[in-house]
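Fold Annotation — chain and its backbone
Encoding — discrete vocabulary of local shapes
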Amino acid sequence: MKILFYLHHPSQYHLFKNAISALKAKKHDCIIFAVEKDILTNLLKLDKINYINNMPDRRRDNKFAMAVGCMKQDWGLLRYCLADRPDILIGTSVEICHIGYLLKIPAFIFSEDDANIISLASKIGYPFARGIISPSVCSAGKWEKKKIGYFGYQKLAYLHPNRFIPDRKILKKYVSLSEPFFFLRLVKLTAYHDTRVNGISKDIMQKILNILSPNGNIYINSEYPIPKEFERYRLDIDIRLIHHLLYYADLYIGDSQSMAVEAAVLGTPGIRFSDFSGRISVLEELEHKYALTTSVKANNTDKLFDTIKKMLNSNNLKDQYKSNKYKMLADKIDVTSFIVWFIENYPESFTIMKNNPLYQEVFRTNGEKL
């Protein structure tokens, strides 16, 4: 089978990397399309993954540039598929939906956002997709009939205990694991759905640092330049080791939705400070069903500071989060195994999941404690 994976963000490479490896091992032909986004192409190069760069120039962060970029990507993908037709298109971006619909190639879009959060993408992509593959807890809006819901989260495709083993040794050159440490992640909120969304400002960051510094070491990872006074906290680390760092952190704080989920599924106590608080189904489930993350709206700084202090003063906090993590894992499937099965057995797998969604129980594992 010839499978084209379309990657638009570093997290999407993580989502599919284990499935790609498994499919290649089974002699399937996997074509990787990628665009210049954050550290995506750096990750592909570091892992020696051959890929086609469908957008070598980084786009500007405005709606007009995004629209032009989408059309360019559509054209690049169309030209490739006309010359070397894949059997199936897999990804998280609308381009595969457009080209799949036009050329009658089944396109499956993987999403971990509710349709109302990514309203533009859902409107211009979902109508043309063969199916929408997302966590069962997510809403596909008026395209719910197209949804294939699975018992899990995208982050479990690479952070499930079957797929990820944290390693203390490889972190020794970067951080001291003999002392408590806190990991702060700042993102550049420029995705189209991030319009008018606020996160951690300079003043808020300074207060956070003042609270944390007496209690342990602080490491900051940021998508954008940070003020000089915070540079001493910036951590220069191999980008492939971030999840190991996140696993061993005593506390994660950030305005990243994606890393908040990663911290939660790893069992690391985390606080997400963002206007998206209370709006994303995956994080709502992780917070209110499994007690694996805490969200604070960006207009409530007092609650943010109080929550940090409360967590710092909690006994056995990390042990409690680890216990909650195993309860969550008992309810979830090995997402990578599900993805591999679904792709390799399409179209039968599509019919099976539509007729009997509980078939996916065969991919459920409790996850051994690490």
The longest strand covers residues 29-35.
